Amino acid sequence: MSGITARSLSDGLGAEINGVDLSRPLDEETFKTIHAAWLDHGVLAFPAQKAMTVDDQIAFTRRFGALISHHMPQFCLPERPEVLVVSNVKEDGRPLGQEKAGRNWHTDYQFLAEPASASFLHAIEVPPDQGDTLFIGMTAVHDALPAATRKRIAGLNVVHSRVQTWPILYPHRPPLSAAEAARTPDIVHPLVRTHPETGRQCLYLGDVMWAVEGMDRKEGQALLRDLYNFATQERFVYAYRWRPGDAVLWDNRCTMHCATPFAEETYRRLMYRTTAQGERPFYADP
Ligand code: SIN
């Protein structure tokens, strides 16, 4: 028996997993239990995994799919392009990782043809009582939409454009180089996404949405804005408060997340993220 327990963290989204040490290899039964809990809860917190090394983290994430190496290697661990460093820490004047990463509601690598399924974030250093990560379960959001809206958006496709949205999202960062832009061309994904493992319908929003296919641009943007405003209501949001050593695994196919600000001049926040590649998103008409 695996001895694992899952305790719900909020109504419908998130569970805390105890009784597992992620610094040790997981047997198949334990992995299956975790995988099933991940599908059920969307977000899993593994408290106090202080012994988990970067290689343990990579090995665990790889069980969910091939790892995605970040397109900006300057923000990854040297020798470990699969590990994105999210941090405000500078050493010898050099940033250790990406600062102010993920401060907009998004899902990981939505601008790729095959975006992320699992993301796994390990807290190495965190500020006390600040710098939470917020999550929204997008199945619950989809199901809470008025029936007429669900009917209207079923089968619509959205153009996601990293290139067009970059200067709007990141005015504080240098513009994308031509080579970076070429690596992430615009991509079309369904607005309602059928989860490939649970079969549930999820609203698939994010921060690089640019236009709704076949719709006047203004009308499309107004629709996306309305859906975004609906989804980000407080009643759908769960805030995870980090302690050092915590690790959180989420399913990008049915959740959105967002990092929150903290007193960056006072505190250090250092997080390692690994991400598994998922499937091409699709919509299956029920
Ligand atoms: C992310 O968007 O993956 C990072 C979230 C966080 O740092 O809280």
Structure commentary:
The chain has seven helices and 18 strands. By secondary structure, the chain is α+β, with helices and mostly antiparallel strands. The strands form five sheets. Strands 1-2-3-16-8-18-5-4 form an eight-stranded mixed sheet, with helices on one face. Strands 15-9-17 form a three-stranded antiparallel sheet. It has a three-stranded antiparallel sheet with strand order 11-10-14. The protein is globular, with a radius of gyration of 18 Å. The mean pLDDT is 95.
CATH superfamily: Clavaminate synthase-like
Counting DSSP E segments of at least 2 residues, the number of strands comes to 18
- CATH fold assignment: Double-stranded beta-helix
C-alpha Rg (nearest Å): 18 Å
Major β-sheet strand ordering = 1-2-3-16-8-18-5-4
What's the helix-strand series? EEHEHEEEEEEHHEHHEEEEHEEEE
What is the name of the CATH class?
A: Alpha Beta
Overall structural domain count: 1
**Quaternary structure state of the chains depicted:** single chain
Largest sheet: 8 strands, mixed
| Mean pLDDT reading | 95
Keywords:
286 residues; Double-stranded beta-helix; eight-stranded mixed sheet; three-stranded antiparallel sheet; binds succinic acid
Task: Provide a short characterization of the protein structure.
By secondary structure, this protein is of the alpha+beta class. About 25% of the residues lie in helices and about 30% in strands.
